[in-house]
Amino acid sequence: MRAMPNPAALPTSTAAVAPPDSALPAVPLIDQYGRQITYLRLSITDRCDFRCTYCMSDAMQFLPRDAVLSLEECLRLVRCFVALGVRKVRITGGEPLVRRNVLWLLARLGALPGLDNLVLTTNGSQLGQFAPTLKTAGVKRLNISLDTLRAERFRSITRIGELSKVLAGIRAAGAAGFTRTKINVVMMRGVNEDEFVDLVNFAVAEGLDISFIEEMPLGAIERERAPISAEEVRGQLAAHFSLQPSDENSGGPARYWRLPDSPTRVGFIEPHSHNFCADCNRVRVTARGELYPCLGHNDAVDLLPLLRAGASDAELKQALQVSMGMKPLQHDFSQQMEKPQVVRFMSMTGG
Ligand code: SAM
Ligand code: SF4
């Protein structure tokens, strides 16, 4: 059940309540625990050309197009976030590169004053076509999902995806000049746990970073397998690599280890075993314009009705401020693998 902000705290009439934008002091987004929000993850579509088993059910219903933020609405929202101190935006989805005219949005965000870091998460399938234009648009870095190097297994995880296209996409990103590209691996017991060493070797050979992600209980998906902890995988990797802890931070939830004689960083995103809430600096906006202050909770502010009712920028910023009161201290996925409490799919919220 989605909790909405106290309506009394939100403006009801544009003309009556909102001060002119220029009269607003730029108050940064700071939550009730003193954490400043500088990072927005924005999902621009719930659609995708893959159907990964951990992300989507086999009978996904996608949103009607008019229920999804338009690209102009996305741009306007990002402008408001940036005015309140957000400096990094990750465009995600669903698969962001299947959104029509995505380059229109990316080029404008890439040139937006105050937005220092525009990054993108993709499944890589469209990068063969898009990589050079993404670079020109001002996208700084790419995260590319890659859970296996075996074509048959790739097909079974993604249901419909083709590994060769993703591998070509990874190479196209390098050829277009992207550096510090990271591959994201969801760790799945009995599915890809025999490939973690191979995936690190692949990252080293291709000059990539790599992050291992603990599977999260999001969406109405049955997950019979026990999650694999990052600690277990570090143990497995330690038999093959000399992993050295590092205090490097890419501004996201990953904690990094270094390999000797290689620029590759090995990251772990540990929502179960080592939750990353204490220094959380991010919020998410879904494809249908819901602002979720926490990935692991259902509280949200619905921005689409405001946008479509002609709210001013001042009113939108006020709604963003209201969401700060909803950001919980932390999430807890530990009891939820079999019966998820967060029923929205990751493709909806954006990873
Ligand atoms: N389609 C793009 C992609 O796959 O990279 C972007 C969206 S996808 C939802 C973003 C990230 O979320 C991916 O790295 C994916 O592996 C991860 N993800 C999806 N469902 C997940 C789950 N249940 N637990 C952990 N990670 C998940
Ligand atoms: Fe699509 Fe990404 Fe979800 Fe896979 S993880 S189904 S590629 S949105």
User: What is the domain tally?
Assistant: 1
Distance between the termini: 21 Å
**And the CATH topology?**
TIM Barrel
Number of strands: 12
Please state the structural category. Answer: alpha/beta
**Helical fraction:** 25-40%
**What would CATH call the class?**
Alpha Beta
Strand content: 15-25%
Strand order of the largest sheet: 7-8-9-6-5-4-3-2-1-10-11-12
In CATH, the architecture is Alpha-Beta Barrel
Ligands, ions, cofactors: S-adenosylmethionine, iron/sulfur cluster
Give the CATH H-level superfamily.
Aldolase class I
Give the SSE string.
Answer: HEHEHEHEHHEHEHEEEEEEHHH
Q: Which whole number gives the mean pLDDT?
A: 88
The description of the largest β-sheet is: 12 strands, mixed
Description:
The protein has a single domain, classed as TIM Barrel, CATH 3.20.20. The radius of gyration is 20 Å and the shape is globular. The protein has helices at 14-17, 71-83, 102-110, 127-137, 151-158, 163-175, 196-206, 230-238, 304-308, 313-324, 346-349, and strands at residues 39-43, 88-92, 117-122, 141-145, 182-187, 209-214, 244-245, 255-258, 265-269, 282-285, 290-292, 301-302. The two termini are 21 Å apart. The model is unreliable at 1-19 (pLDDT under 50). The chain is α/β, with parallel strands linked by helices. The protein is built from eleven helices and twelve strands. A hairpin with a 4-residue loop joins strand 10 (282-285) and strand 11. Strands 7-8-9-6-5-4-3-2-1-10-11-12 form a twelve-stranded mixed beta sheet. Helix 2 crosses helix 10, helix 3 packs parallel to helix 4 and helix 4 (127-137) packs parallel to helix 6 (163-175). Residues 48, 50-52, 55-56, 93-95, 123, 145, 346-347 line the site of iron/sulfur cluster.
